[in-house]
Model the fold of this input.
Amino acid sequence: MLGPVLLAASRSDSIRRIVSAAPVTRPVVNRFVAGERLDESMTAVLALAGRGMEVTLDHLGEDITDPAEALRNRDAYLALAGALAPLGLGVQAEMSVKLSAFGQALPGGHELALKNVTPVVEAAAEIGTTVTLDMEDHTTVDSTLAILAELRQRFPQTGAVVQSYLFRTEDDCYALAGEGSRVRLVKGAYKEPASVAYQDKAEVDTAYVRCLKILMAGGGYPMIGSHDPRMVAIGQELARRYGRKLDEYEFQMLYGIREAEQQRLVAEGHRMRVYVPYGTDWYGYFMRRLAERPANLAFFLRSLVSRG
Done:
């Protein structure tokens, strides 16, 4: 039952200070985060592209409390677009953004986030790629989907993320499964109340399959975000059932997790996109990765012991 504890800790400033100061933390973070600097993220992009993979880049930062931080995050993504431009990778290297990093939770946050993210989406389009809007906790879903609808009026390739553990997600999948719509389906990685989300893993998994069927049957482009071998196999089977070609859907996994499986899917001809986070504000992302899988937490604890 450590998962809910770790998810709560992911938003605790006091625990953030303790974990960040621990000498053993940094080497373990390096497994999941491509680096703190932009040039380090580009090194990771080129290495993955060289192995036939695609990437989506996330400049880490969320839950900001100052409008100036929102502008800094906007500028960081504009710099990222500038760094990607000469690589000429196009949609092989896209960007993922969390709207809370653009001011969504601040007063007037919906309009502020839309204002700040729009130049990033424009910059992505100029270099031949696109942006996917990450989904955060359930209180942000309506705002995020409304911003998505605004952006898609000019940039229809803008991607969305939906989380199968939320009760509402099947309806959202029906709404988003239209022609050309890019949708990443994940299970969900935030601590949500029982009033809005499934709490049992089996129920979350079953909901994931129901949602994936909706997306595969629709006219959009499903992005299967899962490390679960069973979900990967079901994704392959559903793609066959609905007559999808290999370039009509893709798998997505996180940087540093199940790398052999990522390479296997590429070898079989599948599109495999790796979610590559970078930046100094890695704490919240890192704690959610520990909460998601016991193996990740065990990896961290073994490092604590071996370096203690």
Q: What stands out?
A: The CA atoms of residues 253 and 280 lie 21 Å apart. The first helix runs from residue 2 to 9. The first strand starts at residue 54 and ends at 59. The radius of gyration is 18 Å.
